[in-house]
Design brief:
The chain is an all-beta fold. It contains no helices and eleven strands.
């Protein structure tokens, strides 16, 4: 069984910073990649950033240069450092893990709210 627990969301002014954490437990050896998605009210969930097992990363164009994804393998934790936040970054942020190594699907955290005020 896999569990993903996010933390670090909150309210911040435009231009500010936040760091999200996602602690994974269970069959983490199955993960081929982990990432962060977000969903704003009335919009579809979108991929924000992703880190693959070889440590290569991907960023959505809207956050490239402002957000940084990283991981601590010893702690089974993935981080999303968010700088120069904009009101349009306001959304619920979800941690995601791809269980492809074990033929499993995607796992999701419960989500954490990020609100950026103008």
């Amino acid at each position: 069984q896999v569990q993903l627990v996010e933390s670090g969301g909150g309210l911040v002014q435009a231009g500010g910073s936040l760091r999200l954490s996602c602690a994974a437990s269970g069959y983490t050896i199955c993960f081929s990649a982990m990432g962060w998605y977000r969903q704003a009210p009335g919009k579809e969930r979108e991929l924000v950033a992703r880190i693959i097992s070889d440590s290569s990363t991907y960023y959505a164009a809207s956050v490239k240069g402002r957000f940084t994804i990283s991981r601590d393998g010893a702690k089974n934790t993935v981080y999303l450092e968010m700088n120069s936040l904009k009101p349009e970054d306001t959304a619920v942020y979800y941690c995601n893990a791809d269980g492809a190594r074990c033929g499993a699907g995607h796992y999701w955290g419960q989500g954490t709210q990020v609100t950026v005020s103008s």
